[in-house]
């Protein structure tokens, strides 16, 4: 269900980029996506079942099998994906997985193998760079410190991950990543100790926000958009503007008054958390 919601969110964003979208516009977009005769065939694993090509590239192989899905079904999907190639099978990792050194390892899956005999699922391994010195501990006295964990992380890929977060639309997340980069770049070590679960949580929140479900219905003249996180998804909601001041913007959502910083859109009175609600940056633009 979450995959379906994300797909619908992307389609809705595409068709509404130049105005209000419609069901007809989504249908036309889907028809273009499934056009035949191109040099490259883009297909889901389900659509590819029973078909073969000389060369196949699997996108984001690190996502298979999904830990949240049915174990048997996920293994079947993985098997189908790996057995569509007649001669060449390639993997195209996501940028984050590539930077983290995640690679598919294990036995070779041959096209044409009998599908009932499922091969063992290849495992992901973390390809770490050998380091001559021990990882360095960085003093990090922030309320949400990155360098207070016990995971040894290579500096170059960590910089790449933080640079992605430093480009996030959310001001507080950009500031957190920028400070982390400043601390890291002062360190002459190839490895540092960091809080890996915290970094993953921030990255997940940023990724979820980029795939936020659009706000449905027409916006009222005195309404603003607020991003909320619900059940692992991010949704834009229209909220009622209560008061707009030079420092604070107050809105009403679900019968509750929420206060936000008028410059950053961050929730006031709450410690920074990637799952906190925040206002659409467009709501912060000077009113004309």
TrEMBL record:
Keyword ATP-binding part of the UniProt annotation: yes
GO molecular function, one term: exonuclease activity
Domain of life: Bacteria
UvrD-like helicase C-terminal domain: residues covered: 35-93
InterPro entries cross-referenced by the UniProt entry: DNA_helicase_UvrD-like_C, P-loop_NTPase
Keywords for the protein's UniProt record, in alphabetical order: ATP-binding, Exonuclease, Helicase, Hydrolase, Nuclease, Nucleotide-binding
Keyword Oxidoreductase carried by entry: no
Protein name in UniProt: 3'-5' exonuclease
């Amino acid at each position: 269900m979450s995959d379906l919601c994300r797909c619908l969110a992307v389609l809705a964003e595409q068709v509404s980029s130049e105005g209000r979208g419609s069901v007809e516009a989504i249908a036309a977009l889907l028809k273009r996506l499934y056009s035949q005769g191109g040099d490259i065939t883009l297909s889901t694993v389900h659509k590819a079942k029973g078909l073969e090509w000389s060369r196949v590239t699997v996108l984001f192989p690190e996502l298979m099998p999904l830990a949240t899905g049915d174990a048997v079904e996920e293994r079947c999907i993985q098997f189908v994906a790996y057995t569509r190639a007649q001669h060449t099978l390639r993997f195209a990792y996501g940028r984050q997985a590539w930077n983290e050194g995640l690679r598919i390892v294990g036995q070779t899956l041959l096209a044409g193998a009998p599908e009932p005999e499922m091969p063992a699922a290849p495992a992901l391994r973390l390809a770490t760079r050998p380091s001559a010195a021990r990882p360095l501990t960085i003093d990090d006295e922030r309320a949400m410190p990155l360098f207070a964990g016990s995971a040894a992380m290579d500096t170059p890929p960590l910089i790449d991950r933080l640079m992605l977060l430093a480009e996030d639309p959310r001001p507080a997340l950009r500031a957190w990543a920028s400070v982390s980069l400043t601390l890291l770049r002062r360190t002459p070590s190839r490895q540092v100790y960091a809080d890996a679960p915290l970094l993953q949580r921030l990255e997940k929140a940023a990724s979820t926000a980029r795939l936020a479900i659009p706000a449905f219905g027409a916006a009222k003249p005195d309404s603003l958009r607020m991003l909320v996180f619900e059940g692992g998804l991010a949704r834009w909601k229209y909220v009622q503007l209560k008061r707009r001041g030079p420092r604070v913007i107050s809105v009403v959502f679900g019968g509750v008054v929420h206060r936000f910083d008028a410059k950053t859109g961050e929730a006031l009175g709450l410690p920074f958390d990637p799952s906190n609600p925040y206002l659409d940056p467009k709501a912060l633009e000077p009113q004309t």
